[in-house]
Amino acid sequence: MATKKEEKQFEKERKAAAKARQRRMKEIGIEKFLTPEQIKYNRRQRAISAVWPVFRFLILFGLCFIILYPLIFMLSTAFRPSEQMNDPSIIWIPKSFTMDNVKQTWGVMKFDKTLINTIILNLVASILQVVTCSITGYGFARFKFKGKNILFGIVIMMIVVPPQITTIPLYMQFAHFKPEFLAKLFTLGRSASLINSPWTMYLPALFANGIRAGLFIFIFRQFFRGLPKELEDAAYLDGCSPLYTYVKIMIPNARQSFLTVFLFSIVWYWNDYYVSSSFFTNNDTVALMLKNLNTNLIQQLFDGQSVSVRQIIVWLEAGCLLSITPILVMYVFLQRYFVEGIEKSGLAN
Predict the structure, then answer these.
(1) Domain-by-domain residue ranges, the chain?
(2) Model pTM?
(3) Class of domain 109-348
(4) CA terminus-to-terminus distance, the chain
(5) pLDDT digits (tens, 9 = 90+) for 267-282
(6) Is 96 helix (H, G, I), strand (E, B) or coil?
């Protein structure tokens, strides 16, 4: 199987050979031996070959601008002094740059403490969710048991049903958690309620019911179904149990899917504010801080005075920049493995 480098080299040589063949045809005047229809066809193909790269560039440039417009506007605004927002002569590039917006927003959001809390919450919940969803997806892919189709239908419902439907029952369950000795164990003896405790995120993830868990189970199921059955048969012949086979045989072959699901989980937990705001009354996560940033800016920077969004938009965009920077840094370092995981996981099937 040819590598990407060899494929690129082959395509380059093919194009060079085609150009050389066209040059030879021109040199010997091959068009004298062609019919008028063939001559028109060749000229039309040459015109298309000349115009298509320009047309393709314009399409891609337009699409990229539409997709990147919010990011460009955010970068242009976050480092701009607030008084320049009312200057009609400034569109994209400000006359001067400042870091005060970022520094002030950092303080309002308590970003150092908030970032640490969010990373710990996201990492623990994502790791638990990857482990439990992979085991569940492996069970659906490889084992036959009564009620399998019904249970998988419930998994599909987890993808379709919005979280707003299950939030109130979950809140009541966590607010009046029973047995109480477990609640006191989770909260270190402070109360019998799990509200404002990270366990409101950890427990659903531990039981494969966290944020977007249905989609992750489906991804693992599709990937494990695509692996050769002979791998497990050989392990069973060697005396391996199903769990040992899963750990030693299936997990090494599913590295890309694990990484894909882990990155998806990190991003969705990072951006979640609906579920978090239902279980946390304190602003402990980046998403919640960003959601309430407008109110906090008015209270701390403007002493509670009523201001328009245009007056504080530079601080709002600075907050957006701070919130997405860790995710962008993570993607820069892991994007190659992420793309490979998308290609090989159930999303590509």
Answers:
(1) 1-28, 109-348
(2) 0.74
(3) mainly alpha
(4) 20
(5) 888 888 888 888 887 7
(6) coil
